[in-house]
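Colleagues,

For the teaching module next term, I've prepared a clean inverse folding example: a structure given as tokens, and then the sequence designed for it. I'd like students to try predicting residues themselves before seeing the answer, so please don't circulate the second half yet.
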């Protein structure tokens, strides 16, 4: 057998390892199409409470088409249409919209709604619910609002010491959909040490898209010297992808909204760049990064595929109604 000579890293062709799956998940796709359809059907303006999905480009594009983003439903003038974002809302927000005489479209991702239903069910059975998630995140605020008297937030293993429950034999954990799978299990283990009878949710709360994107990024991280994740700074699942890449041992990993945010210095000594995008990111932004990299010698693109995704959700049913007429009726009442 001939002697194999390793090619020095500097002589190896530069390449991009492109994650699959990446980008839009079924819940984001549905929410963005829902805003577009609402604008088409009812005309501008359509108000949207909070960013429909956590992505700067998506929000700016929809604004140009006539969507108006607000912090609270109470800011919307009576007789208008307001849409709730993919992250879900507490029942009090539906009530505010009713009080404000607004017609509503609920674009909450069905996988977030599933967690809301779990929370309602366990609260009815009088369980203490330990919701693992990030303090202040919209999804966590919405889920907690379903059963504020029964839910307490656990923001990582360091929070476990302060958790108190009424009856340690009636405790369940639930979670935000966009967490790091590994970190969440660390928190669950710490909770189980404290409450050995802790019940787990009937099915995974961390959604398929979050899990698949983390698996793909781990695969990239093992083969690249740099990982770039396209996503916004307030996108939970995108931030987690950068963290997962670093934990998987890649020397450097960064989150960028646009190709223009990439620093050329990051490429120094890098042969393989891993590239992926968060669940709220349209692929056009990834294509721009690919072009940017190609211009700098990273023209070879290898797809690293770790899963197939086929899930789609039907659009919110409210879009089948004449909401402008309903909103006009509401102000007459
Ligand atoms: S990340 Fe998961 S939970 Fe969030 S919108 Fe997408 S599919 Fe739904």
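(Answer key — instructors only)
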């Amino acid at each position: 057998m001939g002697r194999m000579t390793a090619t020095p890293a500097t002589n190896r062709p530069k390449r991009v390892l492109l994650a699959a799956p990446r980008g839009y998940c079924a819940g984001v796709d549905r929410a963005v199409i829902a805003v577009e359809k609402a604008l088409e059907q009812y005309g501008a303006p359509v108000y949207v409470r909070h960013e429909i999905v956590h992505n700067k480009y998506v929000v700016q594009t929809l604004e140009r088409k006539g969507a108006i983003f607000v912090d609270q439903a109470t800011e919307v003038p009576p007789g208008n249409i307001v849409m709730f974002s993919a992250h879900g809302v507490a029942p009090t927000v539906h009530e505010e919209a009713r009080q404000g005489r607004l017609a509503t479209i609920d674009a909450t991702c069905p996988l977030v709604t599933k967690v809301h239903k779990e929370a309602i069910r366990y609260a009815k059975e009088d369980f203490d619910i330990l919701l693992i998630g990030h303090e202040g995140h919209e999804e966590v605020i919405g889920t907690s609002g379903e059963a504020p008297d029964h839910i307490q937030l656990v923001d990582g293993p360091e929070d476990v010491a302060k958790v108190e429950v009424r009856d340690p034999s009636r405790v369940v954990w639930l979670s935000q959909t966009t967490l790091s799978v590994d970190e969440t299990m660390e928190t669950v283990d710490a909770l189980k040490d404290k409450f050995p009878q802790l019940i787990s949710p009937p099915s995974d709360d961390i959604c398929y898209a979050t899990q698949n994107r983390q698996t793909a990024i781990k695969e990239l991280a093992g083969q690249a010297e740099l990982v770039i994740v396209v996503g916004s700074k307030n996108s939970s699942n995108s931030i987690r992808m950068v963290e997962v890449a670093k934990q998987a041992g890649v020397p450097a990993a960064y989150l960028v909204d646009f190709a223009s945010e990439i620093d050329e210095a990051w490429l120094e000594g890098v042969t393989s760049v891993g590239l992926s995008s968060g669940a709220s990111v349209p692929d056009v932004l990834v294509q721009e990064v690919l072009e940017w990299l190609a211009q700098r010698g990273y023209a070879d693109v290898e797809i690293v595929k770790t899963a197939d995704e086929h899930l789609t959700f039907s659009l919110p049913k409210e879009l089948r109604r004449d909401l402008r007429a309903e909103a006009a009726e509401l102000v007459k009442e």
